[in-house]
Automatic annotation (TrEMBL):
Cited Pfam families: 2-Hacid_dh (PF00389), 2-Hacid_dh_C (PF02826)
Protein's UniProt keywords contain NAD: yes
Domain D-isomer specific 2-hydroxyacid dehydrogenase catalytic: 14-315
Organism: Enterocloster lavalensis
Recorded family membership: Belongs to the D-isomer specific 2-hydroxyacid dehydrogenase family.
Keywords: NAD, Oxidoreductase
GO molecular function: NAD binding; oxidoreductase activity, acting on the CH-OH group of donors, NAD or NADP as acceptor; transcription corepressor activity
Protein name: D-3-phosphoglycerate dehydrogenase
Residue span(s) of domain D-isomer specific 2-hydroxyacid dehydrogenase NAD-binding: 107-283
InterPro entries cross-referenced by the UniProt entry: CtBP, D-iso_2-hydroxyacid_DH_PdxB, D-isomer_2_OHA_DH_cat_dom, D-isomer_DH_NAD-bd, NAD(P)-bd_dom_sf
SUPFAM superfamilies: Formate/glycerate dehydrogenase catalytic domain-like, NAD(P)-binding Rossmann-fold domains
Amino acid sequence: MKVVITDYQYENIDQEKKIIGDAGLKLAEYQIKDAKQLIGLIDDADAVITQYSDMNREVIEHLQHCKMIIKYGIGVNNIDVMAATEKGIYVCNVPDYGVEEVSDHAIAMIFALSKKLPIITKALRNGDWGYSSVVPLYRFSESVVGLVGLGRIPQLVAKKLKGFGVRILAYDPYVMPETAEESGVELVDFDTLCKESDYISIHCPQTGGTNHLFNKRVFQMMKKTAFIINTARGPVVCEEDLVEALESGEIAGAALDVFENEPVCADHKLLSMDQVIATPHCAWYSIEAITSLQRKTAEEVVNVLAGNAPFNCVNRMELQNKHTS
């Protein structure tokens, strides 16, 4: 059986080579993201590992006997899941490799915003000794943190924030009340979360229903002293509306690790705003996270090609329905 890696950004793929090789599988590696270049190269793959390559319908339709496509990461936006499902191909991901890192990053952003650290640092460098540049600041322990989504990462955010005395709200139409109770958060509707939160941390996937979920209407609903944090997917926030909200004072600030178009342009308006903290989609990063991601990706490939059900499959239900219909 043949495994193909379309592209990767890591220093090496020694772990994958060993795990896949020890299982008696053949491995071919490329650094190709363009869909048209992939056609012909990966057609005979039994499993495809991808990071950023364009696994669109045309590429998938050329796959002759592929059993799985797995993403180095969580989001599968670069994979046409519907096309894969129609061909009976598992679409897999690795949802837990960087949950500690992303939850820490979101919390670090919340803390930095709560003390307006970038603003006061810039003021001090410009000779302003004092706190006038960050007036007003509010006591963090008396604030409300809203979590949009209550999966693995926001559950960890809630767990880590518990010791700070904040009230934590969550909006997730798919989560069970028991999960919210175990996480120590209050389940509320979306509008309530937006109106009552001092910090809104986004942790939902990008779907048709969440695209531009945060827009002009929502920013007008939020407190003028509120902040928004996004470590999920850029398109969940309408950046044009966010810029307008920040410029008009509708909200107090933002912290973004993800953007609508990546890599973000250096002259993007959001990058020049003092009340915005921005990082280059790196919330997931640590040495341990990369090691875990590469290992778990290879182990999942071996698992599925051995005839087992995948550990993590984003189209499992669709395939089950397809097979039973």
